[in-house]
Design brief:
single chain, mainly alpha, 2 domains, two-stranded antiparallel sheet, 15 helices
């Protein structure tokens, strides 16, 4: 039995045990296990599909959880037309439910078989062999299941799509008449976007990785409130949370936000809280716990600086060549995208920048220390070591 099927069976048993607990707290394990029948579960799911359970790419409940019956399963061909749209993005299929209690049947249809595709995918394509083999069901059972499924699918194709007053409507004039557009969210693309952003932003970075990527200024969207299961199967899997990319218009950056003499002048007092915390963490240079805490603070400072570096790289290339710009050569190579080739080919600038960076941290900490307690070569050496450890972030 496939592991995914075992997990489905175990979830069924656990739920049934909770429902059948008698007053003495005794569970009828054997009876529950015997009651589980995968073929019957499959038949039930096939009977419900396209009736109370529907595959969907656009679900009206993403606009308003109270919407009923507004479900679109767009079957769009993939085309190299340059558009981010349904059909051009490889995604999982979402499943809308008329009742959250039907989620078990939806989960069964969404189980992946040995080739990585779902039961729904293979049933929709009538790939009987892999279903019969992986689920260990007979040809007669499969035929009954497929007939239930295909009949519902055919009946559903003849239904007219409908909208709801709870969905945002756009009226578009066409001659003497108009088109009515109902704006629906592409739940499958939203799910795929979240997966890709999470892979970039929230996967633990390898210290030896050459390239560093991070997507800033994200917005989190929550759909369904405390009951995400009432919206769709995919929404429940994501706990109703999605990530949106920044779609703000370009900002006209003030010239004062572009460094003229030194990148670190841009931070001024913005990071004093870190330096104040850092200055109190050198009572014992050899203490491993304190050393680890110092490293975390310095890495936080590094990430703040890296965010600013990538922000400046998004400006029009060549901004550092203005006559009044007196940035050190190493910082011009680091910050101005016109110097990208030099940045990647010649790493001499990187040594200069890291030295400058560590001295800035030293100077910033010493602002909060008496002269007789000022940091010196020992602390500077530690700063350099940690910055060097994270040098790939500057490339």
């Amino acid at each position: 039995m496939l592991k995914s099927i075992e997990e489905f069976r175990d979830a069924y048993i656990k739920k049934e045990k909770d429902k059948r607990k008698d007053k003495d707290g005794i569970n009828e394990d054997c009876e529950i296990i015997n009651d589980f029948n995968l073929v019957n579960e499959f038949k039930k799911a096939a009977k419900l599909f396209y009736v109370d359970i529907s595959p969907s790419t656009h679900n009206g409940r993403f606009s308003n959880p109270s919407v009923k019956g507004v479900v679109i399963n767009a079957n769009c061909n993939k085309d190299n037309d340059g558009y981010l749209r349904t059909g051009n993005v490889s995604t999982d299929i979402d499943i809308s439910l008329n009742d959250a209690a039907l989620s078990r049947s939806a989960k069964l249809m969404n189980i992946e078989l040995s080739d990585g595709n779902t039961i729904y995918y293979h049933l929709n394509c009538n790939n009987r062999n892999i279903i019969m083999e992986d689920l260990e069901i007979s040809q007669d059972d499969y035929s009954e299941i497929y007939n239930l499924f295909s009949t519902n699918k055919k009946n559903n194709e003849n239904k007219l799509s409908r909208t709801s007053k709870l969905v945002s409507q756009v009226y578009f004039n066409v001659g003497d008449t108009f088109h009515l557009f109902s704006v629906l969210s592409p739940s499958c693309i939203m799910d795929e976007l979240k997966k890709r952003i999470s892979k970039i932003n929230f996967t633990k970075k390898d210290a030896n990785v050459e390239n560093y990527s991070r997507i800033p200024n994200l917005t989190q969207l929550r759909i369904g409130g405390a009951k995400p299961q009432n919206v769709s199967f995919m929404n429940n899997s994501n706990s109703g949370n999605y990530l949106l990319l920044n779609a703000s218009p370009p900002e006209l950056l003030s010239k004062r936000l572009v460094p003229k003499k030194d990148l670190f002048f841009l931070f001024n007092k913005n990071m004093d809280c870190y330096f104040k915390e850092l200055k109190d963490m050198f009572p014992d240079i050899t203490n491993a716990d304190m050393r680890s805490k110092r490293e975390k603070i310095i890495e936080t400072i590094i990430l703040k600086v890296v965010d600013k570096i990538f922000e400046l790289r998004n400006l029009s290339p060549g901004w550092s060549k203005e006559k009044r710009n007196n940035l050190p050569v190493c910082q011009k190579i680091l910050l101005d995208q016109i110097n990208e080739y030099n940045r990647l080919e010649d790493k001499v600038w990187l040594t200069d920048f890291m030295s400058h960076f560590s001295k800035w941290i030293l100077y910033s900490c010493n602002k909060f220390l008496d002269t007789d307690k000022a940091f010196g070569d020992i602390q500077l050496s530690e700063f350099k070591t940690i910055i060097k450890k994270n040098k790939d972030l500057f490339l």
